[in-house]
Design brief:
The strands form 6 sheets. Strands 3-2-1-8-7-6-5-4 form an 8-stranded mixed β-sheet. Strands 9-14-13-12-10-11 form a 6-stranded mixed β-sheet, sandwiched between helices. The protein has a 4-stranded antiparallel β-sheet with strand order 19-18-24-25, with no helix packed on it. It has 3 domains: 46-308, TIM Barrel; 340-475, 3-Layer(aba) Sandwich (Rossmann fold), CATH 3.40.50.1700; 522-638, Immunoglobulins (Immunoglobulin-like, Sandwich). By secondary structure, it is of the alpha/beta class. It contains 19 helices and 26 strands. The chain starts with 6 loop residues before the first helix and ends in a 9-residue tail after the last strand. Strand 24 (611-620) and strand 25 (623-632) form a beta hairpin. The radius of gyration is 26 Å and the shape is globular. Belongs to the glycosyl hydrolase 3 family. Residues 1-34 form the signal peptide. This is Beta-glucosidase. GO terms for molecular function: hydrolase activity, hydrolyzing O-glycosyl compounds.
Length: 647
């Protein structure tokens, strides 16, 4: 159905907002919307009302592990819809950052990571999981990156791998609901991700359901269902029960429905849940929710289950047990491709520890275990390395640190800054390995050390790969998926960070897409851009003029016409290529016109204004050496997701 809440309803506030939503729900036409496949809607209509209400309410129970709840979609056995489970991190339990995987810029690796994760999930009797990196609620750059194309393609590839393994992915996770509308970048990231993972759902995970439970989606149902022809489910999960004040529950229910929520879950019983007795009363005879709307909610759930293959391939549903500790079988690959070299002065890399001058490996606090693992891995790589005892938080350094010639310092946070500075003041050659996913970390010691490596929140499973990088057995190829700001960023927080720096004409500490190699040296040339209908074809050459084989990630950016309201440039494509010394390759990248324009919520299409556009090629957002300009006519591109089949 075209948007539940009309334009006036979205602007209304307080009690008037609730009345407007009620009117929109009551008067909405019962016919299926553009996103709803007739066969699936008809199947949902054949369910009993009790079965439909069961299908759209998730059950949340405390799990056998602290900080983890188990979410169950009860399903409808009579209709062949299996019960499905997922593990949900509770409030305060934290969520895993996807930045290490994004830093590989390797979509094939991301898909394989999704397939490996699917095997582990199903082995635990579950078949639904949250996929971070993109989602309707803002979660911060550490959890969603900052570029819609990179985040959308990488996390869409993860979701595609999950679906191939018969696990239903839900884009999103814990976020911060609020009054701000969905940003253009977040919306574009969702669209890109859904293109690759048809059937994936969306998730808003909040502490407690309030008046804007899925804030970014409020008022977007017309865009999602009629514009994108998105037929999947939208889930709302809360850590705490909805307030039981009857006067407060009705407007909250209306807001959830206005945001297009199909499934709601919270701790408690069916009688207390928002999509329990409150929803049942809303669809009973004389209620304000048209029965056809409940049919469509059930159809969206069934569509995602069907597209993810969990109906034909239901997981084992045995006794509730703790989710097993997941050991990523691709951890070595992610470390090898996603570790980013930020600084390499005075030939600190590759490391070369000898008996006369061993490498001293230092790590305190949370980084202590990683330092132990790395000292062992360096030994296996043929280096002479020894693990140092923890240095004192205050006072002079012990002699074995003060007299060391080469020191590798593993740091998990800014609490190490004083110690790093003290170690660097000894005159030793110091390499700092960062073990956090904080793109805003300041580095007051940066000019005092010889090298900096961003290894993300690596702890285990990638020690040998990291040792190979540090000792030169293979070259670094990771590229930053976020701008490293050094703790100082310009305004415009609603924009991707590198766009904000561009608008302010300020250089960041390390720019988006940045990453060094040690001995590989890549150069670009012969940039050509042609237009084929609504697509651009960007062709160029890349050569390795270095002394070692390496993997490069040439990046393509668009410079927008003068007067554009957006930031000066945006990423529109990239390729990864492995080259031996002296080898050259000719590459081509197809660019969809949707990446060139903006979304028009009125006409439900992507619009590219006529004008002069620049296409730039380079190693990162602040190093674009190859450029050319072309004129584009005004273009209008359908917003429908590929292979949507009307839904």
């Amino acid at each position: 159905m075209a948007g539940i809440a009309g334009r006036g309803a979205r602007r209304a506030g307080g009690p008037w907002r609730g009345m407007a939503l009620l009117a929109a729900l009551t008067l909405s036409a019962p016919s299926a919307g553009a996103a709803d496949r007739p066969a699936r809607t008809a199947s949902a209509a054949r369910l009993t009302q009790t079965e439909k209400l069961t299908l759209v309410r998730a059950e949340i129970m405390a799990g056998p592990v602290a900080g983890v709840s188990i979410v169950t979609l009860p399903g409808v056995p009579r209709a062949g819809l299996p019960a499905l489970r997922m593990a949900l991190l509770d409030d305060g339990a934290g969520q895993r950052s996807p930045l290490a995987l994004m830093a590989t810029w390797d979509r094939d690796l991301a898909r394989r990571a999704g397939q490996a994760r699917a095997r582990a999930i199903r082995a635990g009797g579950r078949a639904i999981t949250a996929v971070g990196g993109v989602g309707p609620l803002p979660a911060g750059r550490a959890y969603e990156g900052e570029d819609p194309l990179l985040a959308g393609r990488m996390m869409g590839a993860v979701a595609s791998g999950l679906i191939a393994g018969h696990v239903l992915p839900l884009f999103g996770g814990r976020g911060q609901p609020g009054a701000d509308a969905v940003s253009e970048d977040r919306m574009q990231a969702l669209h890109v991700a859904l293109e690759q993972a048809r059937g994936a759902g969306m998730l808003c995970h909040v502490t407690v359901v309030d008046a804007r439970p899925c804030g970014a989606l409020d008022g977007m149902e017309r865009t999602l269902r009629d514009g994108w022809h998105y037929g999947g489910m939208i889930a709302l999960l809360a850590d705490r029960p909805t307030p039981d004040d009857p006067a407060a529950r009705r407007p909250i229910l209306l807001s959830a429905l206005a945001a297009g929520i199909d499934v709601e879950g919270e701790p408690g019983t069916a009688d207390t849940a928002l999509f329990g007795v409150s929803l049942r009363q809303a669809v009973m005879k004389g209620g304000f929710l048209p029965p056809a709307r409940l049919d469509r909610m059930a159809a969206h759930v069934m569509q995602s289950m069907d597209d993810a293959g969990v109906i034909e391939n239901p997981p084992p549903f045995g006794a509730l047990r703790a989710p097993a500790l997941y050991r990523d079988p691709l951890a070595e690959d992610v470390v090898a491709e996603g570790t980013v070299l930020l600084r390499n002065e005075n030939a600190i890399l590759p490391l070369a520890g000898t008996t006369a001058e061993p490498i001293l490996v230092l790590g305190t606090g949370a980084a202590r275990e990683a330092a132990d693992i790395m000292a062992d891995a360096l030994g296996r790589a043929g280096q002479v390395a020894r693990r140092a005892a923890d240095a004192p938080a205050e006072g002079p350094l012990p002699p074995y640190i003060a007299q060391a010639g080469h020191i590798v310092f593993f740091s998990a946070g800014p609490e190490d800054d004083r110690l790093i500075g003290a170690v660097a003041d000894t005159g030793a050659h110091v390499l700092v390995v960062l073990l956090s996913d904080d793109p805003a970390r300041s580095m007051p010691w940066l000019d005092q050390v010889d090298g900096v490596v961003q290894a993300w929140s690596w702890r285990e499973g990638g020690g040998d790969a990291l040792a190979d990088l540090l000792t030169g057995q293979r070259d670094f190829s990771g590229r930053l998926p976020v701008t490293f700001t050094g703790g100082a960023a310009p305004p415009h927080p609603h924009l991707a960070a590198y766009k904000a720096f561009d608008r302010a004409h300020v250089a960041p500490l390390f720019p988006f897409g940045y990453g060094l190699s040690v001995r590989a040296r890549f150069t670009y040339g012969d940039l050509k851009v042609t237009r084929d209908g609504s697509r651009l074809l960007v062709a160029f050459s890349v050569s390795n003029r270095g002394a070692m084989a390496g993997r490069d990630v040439p990046q393509i950016y668009l410079d927008l016409p003068e007067g554009s309201a957006d930031a000066p440039k945006r990423l529109i494509g990239w390729r990864t290529v492995q080259l031996t010394p002296g080898q050259a390759a000719r590459l081509a990248v197809g660019i969809d016109a949707r990446m060139l324009g903006h979304w028009n919520p009125v006409t439900l299409e992507w619009v590219v204004p006529a004008g002069e556009y620049g296409v730039s090629l380079g190693a990162h957002a602040a190093n674009l050496g190859q450029q050319m300009t072309l004129h584009l006519p005004e273009m209008h591109i359908s917003g429908a997701l590929p292979d949507a089949e009307g839904g």
